[in-house]
Amino acid sequence: MEWLLYFDLFGVFVFALSGGFDGAKYHLDLLGILVLALATSLGGGIMRDAILGVHPPAAFTNETYFFTALAAGLIAFFFANRVERHMDYVRFADAIGLGVFAAIGAATAVRHELGWVGVVLMSTLTATGGGVIRDLLVREIPMILRSDFYASAAIIGGLMYMVLHSEGVPEAYCMGLAALAATASRFVAMRYNVNLPQARR
C-alpha cells in the first residue's frame, strides 16, 4: 500500500534525524553522522525482516529508504551548530520515530500471522533496534536498558495495535493509533520523568 510506504519513510526520516543529531552531539564528522543516521533508522527494520524471513530486507530492495535516511543525516550535519542548544528536538524526533516504528513492526508481524507475544516483540524490536545500534556505536548504554521509559512505550504501541486489530479495526487506524499511543507514552514519560523501578544497590 502506498500510504504504508509513506508511513514507513516518515519513521525512517525522523529516526535518521535522531541518529544524526546524536552524532552531532559527539562532534562526529560527516561520515560518522551519516552512519549513525542510517544505523538508527534502518537497523531495527533490518533485524525484524531477518527474523521474519524477509530476504533481502526492505531497506535493501527499496533505495528510497536509504536516500531518505541520507537526506535526514545531511540535515542533521548542516544544522549541527544548533543541536547543542536544542537537544529537545533530538528527543522529540526520537519519540515520534519510536511510535511510528512500533506501529510498523506490529503491522508487519500481524501480516506474518504472529500471535500477541510475537507482535509485541517485533513491535519493540523494530522501534528500539536501531537505537541500540546507535548507542553502542557512540559507546553509550542502550536507552532501552537505562531508566528511561523507552522500550515500555514501544510495548504499549504493540499492545494497542493488537487490541484494535482483534476488534476488527482497519489496519490504517490500528497503525495510526498504535503510533500515537507509543509516542504519547514516551512524551508523558519525558515530561513527568516517569521511569521503571530500578534495582536497589
Largest sheet: none
Radius of gyration: 16 Å
As for the number of domains, it is: 1
**Tally of helical runs:** 9
How would you describe the shape?
globular
Number of strands: 0
Oligomer: single chain
Q: Give the percentage of residues in beta strands.
A: under 5%
Helix content: over 70%
Order of helices and strands: HHHHHHHHH
List strands and helices in order, with pairings.
Elements (H helix, E strand, L loop, with lengths): L1 H24 L4 H23 L5 H4 L1 H16 L1 H4 L3 H25 L4 H22 L13 H16 L4 H22 L9
Helix pairs in contact: 1-2, 1-4, 1-6, 2-4, 2-6, 2-7, 6-7, 6-8, 6-9, 7-8, 8-9
Describe the fold and architecture.
With 201 residues, this protein is mainly α. The chain has one domain. Helices cover 78% and strands 0% of the residues. The chain is built from nine helices and no strands. The chain is globular, with a radius of gyration of 16 Å. The model has no long low-confidence stretch (mean pLDDT 89).
Which terms summarize this structure?
single chain, 201 residues, mainly alpha, 78% helix
Briefly, what is this?
The protein is an all-alpha fold and 201 residues long. It is 78% helix and 0% strand.
